[in-house]
Predict the 3D structure of the following.
Amino acid sequence: MPEKPRRRLSSSPSAPDGAGASLTALRGVGPRVAERLQRLGVRDQFDLLLHRPLRYQDRGFVRPVAQLEENEEATIEGRVVESHLAPGPRRMLLCRLADDSGEISLRFFNAPPGWLERFRPGALLRCHGETRRVGFALEMAHPELLTAGEADEDALYPVYPATEGMHQSRLRGLIRQALDNLEQGRLAFPDLLPDEVVREEGFPSVLDALRLIHRPPREAGVEAALCEGRHPAVRRLAFEELLAQQLALREARARMRRFTAPPMGAGGRLFDEWLAGLPFRPTAAQQRVLEEVRGDLSRAQPMLRLVQGDVGSGKTLVAAGAALHAIEAGWQVALMAPTGLLAEQHQRNLTGWLTPLGLAPVLLSGTLGARARREALARVVSGEAPLVVGTHALFQDAVRFARLGLVIVDEQHRFGVHQRLSLTGKGEDETGGQRPHQLVMTATPIPRTLAMSAYADLDVSVIDELPPGRTPVRTVAIADTRREEVMERLRAVAAEGRQAYWVCPLIEESEAVQAQAAQVAAQMLQESLPELRIALVHGRLPGAEKDAVMNAFKAGAFDVLVATTVIEVGVDVPNASVMVIENAERLGLAQLHQLRGRVGRGAAQSSCVLMYRAPLGERGRARLGLLRETHDGFRIAEEDLRMRGPGEVLGTRQTGLARLRVADLLRDADLLPAVREVADRLLAREPARAEALIARWVGDARDYGKV
Ligand code: ADP
Ligand code: MG
C-alpha cells in the first residue's frame, strides 16, 4: 500500500523552479515513455501536475453487487466462484464473482496466461468498472483490478484525459510520483502569484491546490466544484495561467513597440481624391476606424491593430484607405488574404479603386505562371509595385520588398499565429531595422473578454455598423425531409434571374469526404432541376479551377453554386440572394453567421435556409433560433463562446496562445480585470516574476510572440 504523505511544506521551497523536474527522473519513464507523454503535451513534471482530472471516482466505497444497476460505475469486492477461458482465439476470460449479496460476471479480453491462476475459485478480488446488461444479468467488461484494500479510503480517484499508449493507471501513477516529489521537496513549484493576490482572492497555495486537484478529500461538493472549475484550487491555477498568458502577449507587444516604424505623414491628396471618387460614402464607423488607423500610421512605432467588423461591414474599404495612406507616404503595402479567390477579389476591387489614381496593384498568387511570377516579384523588389496582394505566397522567402511599410492581413482568424507574425519579419532588412505597421482584420466578432485575453498584444477597432440599404437576411430553419421544397424554391429564384449557394459542410476533417458530399449534392440538384445551371466548388479543386468556377458564378454563368465551406470567407456576389446550408445543426453559430453573410449584399430580399437533420434537440432548436432572431455577430459569438468554447470563436487554427490548460475564458472571465491589473503591476515592478510565470505556463509558445 503506497504511503500517503501528509506533510505540509512551506509553499515557497528554496529549490529553483524547474529543479529535478525532468520526466525521466520519474520511476518507469525512459525516453520512449517521455516521448509518448510529450504527445499529450506533457514535457516535464510540472506539466504532469497541471494535467487536470476529467472527473473522479469514488472507490473507497465498495458496493454490494445486488444493488448495482445498469451502466453504473462502481467498486465491488468478492470471491471468485468460477472462471474459465472461452473457446476461441481471443483468450476471453469469463469469471463469476460473488459477495454477500449476490453474483456478477466479469469479462476480460486477451487475458494474460497467468490470469486463470489469479482468478482461481475462492480468490478475493476488488475491481472497479462499469456495469452493462447482458441478457437478464449484469456484467463488468474489463474492470480495473485493484488489490483488495488498495484504494484510499478517504480520497477520490482522479480520472485523467489519457491517450492510447498512455492509459489511465500509468498516468495516474506518474502524476502520483510527481505529487510525492513535490510534497517531499524534491520538486520545487514556487508560488508565483504575489501574496496580496492570494490573500485578496482567498486562494490556496500552489501545493495545496495541486494536492486538492489530484487527491481531493471525500467531502460533499468538492468533486463537483473541482470538475466545474469553481473550486478555489482550480481558480488559483486558472488565475496564474491567465496572468502568464496576459504577460506573454503584453511582453510581445512591448518588444514590438521598441522597434521603430516609418512615420507616415498625412499628405492626403491621393487619399481625398480616392474618397471623393468612391461610389458611396463610407459609414461613420468606417470613417472612425480609418482615422484610428491613420493616426497609428503617422507614428514612428509599429501599428498593431485588429479591425473587427461583421461580414459585410466593409473592411476592404478600411484596408484600401490604410494602404493609400502608406503609399502616399512613399511606402509599399502587402495585403494578404486566406485564399487565392479572396486575393483575386481584393485585387479586382483595389484595381478598380486605385487605377484612376495611377496606381496598379500587383497580384501574387499560387496560380501565377513562372514567368508572370518572376515579373511580379521584380516589380515588388524594385519598389515599383505600390501594393502587393496575395496569399501565403507572400511569405515565401523569394518575396523581397524594397520599402515595405504596412502589412494588412485579412480574415485573420483563418491564419495561424505563426503566419501572422512571420510576415512582419519582412521589411526589417529593407527598411533599416524598422518594422512595418500591421493591420489585421477579422470578420469573426470576438467577445470582449476573449479579445482582452487572446489579443492583448493588439489595439482593437470595431466597425460596428453596416452600410445602409441592406435588407436583413430572412433566416428559416427547415428539416432536411423538406429538401424537395427547398429545391423548388431554387427554381423560382433562378427564374427571377437571381442566384443561390448550396453549402454542404460536412464535419469530417477530410477534404476528400467533404468534396464527395458536395459532388453528390450537386448531382442530386442537377437531376431534380435539369433546367438550372449548377456549378460545384470545393477545396480539392486546383486553385485556378476553383477561381474560374467562382468567377463564372460571379459573372452570372450559373444559377446555383454547390460548395463546401470554402466559400465561407469574403466571397462577394451581390446577385446571390439565397443561401442553403445543409447539416446546419452541426456547425458553429459564428460559422453559420459567416456563411449567411454571403447573401444580403444587394438590395433584393435575401434568405438563408438552415437545413437540419430531424429531430432537432432542444439545444439545437435554441441555437438555430438565435440565428433566426439576430444578425448581431457579437451576440452570436458570445453564444458560441458559451456553448462551444473559445476554440470555436477564435478558429481552430488559432492554437498557440489561445490554448489554455486550466483556465476557461468564459468560466473565469470574472478574473480577467484582476489579472490585467496584476499584469500591469508585475511588468512595472517585478519583471523577474513575470518572466518566471511566462516560462512556467507559456513556455515554448512564447516564441509565437517573438517577431
Ligand atoms: P467585409 O467587411 O465583409 O470584408 P466588404 O469590404 O467585402 O465587407 O464589403 C461588402 C460590400 O459592401 C462590398 O460590396 C462593398 O463594396 C460594399 N460597401 C462597403 N462599404 C460601403 C459603404 N460605406 N456604403 C455602401 N456599400 C459599401
Ligand atoms: Mg472581407
In short: The longest strand covers residues 73-86. Residues 1-17, 416-423, 651-658, 701-707 have pLDDT under 50 and may be disordered. The pocket of adenosine-5'-diphosphate (ligand 1) is lined by residues 280, 282-283, 286, 309, 311-317, 443, 467, 572, 601 (CB under 6 Å). The CA atoms of residues 477 and 610 lie 5 Å apart.
